[in-house]
Amino acid sequence: MNNEQDALNVLGGIDDLKLIIQRNFTAPCISCPTQGSLHLLPIHEYIDHVIHFAKTYPPAGNNQVPGASTLVSLMKNGTKEQIDAVAQILRTVKEENYIVNRFEPKLSNAIGELASDKAVNQIGDIRIYTGNAAKLIELKSFKKTTISSMASDVDFVNQFKAYLQNTDITSIDRLEYLFDIRKLVKTQNTEADFETIADALDFIKPKFKEMMQNNYMTIFNNNPNLFNIYNLQNGLPVNTPQRFQTFLSEIDISHSIFNFIKVK
């Protein structure tokens, strides 16, 4: 797709673009940058991301990308929480220059995700290819208050377990949990809770470690090959649930096993 008119056509025309703009009604504008939802980009940048998405990932036609039409529908009809999540997806694919071959947004409840889908969604909000292998990216438009309860959230835990069973996840770096920098870091949003990305990660990673420790048996058994590449401090391989439990007690959040957790 070569021009903005083509992108406008696949979105449904000028009236549909107006609707997309209206649905993102809490976004700041050029003349009111400190008003509205400060974690959202100004509306003119959001429009740029919408057009880029329509040009790059057509929701219809011979070259359509699976799931793109769902995102377009959410742009037009979504709740505020869904629009927040969609905005994160659009920003991510443009800024990271991903080559996406599938979108799988599950965006229905107050935190932008349908609880019943979290346990069964093994696809990822974005499925990309890096080299010759697939990578699943789960985007989280969470604030600190939601992150605080992740380790004990049954649906969140079950979603993580389900990802580990996906055949695309042949190593832990084939999975990425991407938390929205604009919800978390003050350089992007003065109302956020953390001064830096490092501060945010220092809060998020322990929640994942706690979740793994609390569920070490099932997490290990869901995909042992992800963990038997690691060794205990005594040199023994992490090849049983019990050794995985010991391994988690020996490491801190700087360990590479937690590198799949990002803030962008």
* Rg from alpha-carbon coordinates: 19 Å
Low-confidence blocks of residues = 107-123
What is the H/E string? HHHHHEHEEHHEHHHHE
State the major sheet.
5 strands, mixed
Instruction: Give the overall pLDDT as a whole number.
Output: 87
Total domain modules: 1
The level of helicity is 40-55%
Strand tally is: 5
Question: What descriptive keywords fit this protein?
Answer:
264 residues; alpha/beta; 5-stranded mixed beta sheet; 12 helices; 9% strand
Write up what this structure looks like.
- This protein is α/β, with parallel strands linked by helices and 264 residues long.
- It has one domain.
- It has helices at 4-11, 14-23, 43-56, 68-77, 80-95, 115-118, 144-148, 154-165, 181-184, 197-214, 216-222, 241-250, and strands at residues 100-103, 126-130, 133-140, 175-179, 261-263.
- The chain has a five-stranded mixed beta sheet with strand order 1-2-3-4-5.
- Strand 2 (126-130) and strand 3 form a beta hairpin.
- The two termini are 28 Å apart.
- Residues 107-123 have low confidence and may be disordered.
Give a short overview.
This protein has 264 residues and is of the alpha/beta class. It contains twelve helices and five strands. Helix 11 crosses helix 12.
List strands and helices in order, with pairings.
Elements: H1 4-11, H2 14-23, H3 43-56, H4 68-77, H5 80-95, E1 100-103, H6 115-118, E2 126-130, E3 133-140, H7 144-148, H8 154-165, E4 175-179, H9 181-184, H10 197-214, H11 216-222, H12 241-250, E5 261-263
Parallel strand pairs: 3-4, 4-5
Antiparallel strand pairs: 1-2, 2-3
Helix pairs in contact: 1-3, 3-5, 11-12
